[in-house]
Specification:
The chain is mostly helical. The protein contains five helices and no strands.
Amino acid sequence: MNAIPSQLQTAAILQLVSGILNVIALWYVASMGLAVLGGAVTGCVTLGACPIGVACGIPPMALILVGVLEIVAGILTIARVSGTHRIPTYVAYLELASLLLGGLVSAIVGGVVLILMRSEEVRAYDEAMAAEAR
């Protein structure tokens, strides 16, 4: 079995840390921030009659799911489970999309992971893992 490249190991650790932060706290910070902002805007527009903008705090709760997927991707990559060599890339695209939910940290980590996954060492490792999985 090939040794895991340092770029891939760094990407896995970044996803693991980002996932833990999302599950523990970042979903709450994004949720409360958007709820306060949405409530303030609709409260001002309707002169306090309809503060329904507080519901803007509900979508960031999906960051919990993104965090769990990041944790799983990090663990599978570090453990070098056969057939999971492309999961960090797929999760990185999901992390970039999480910016729409207020997941700024995840989006930054997703961008860094995509950059790390483009190195020649990681590509050679991916090809070797794909051949081994067959």
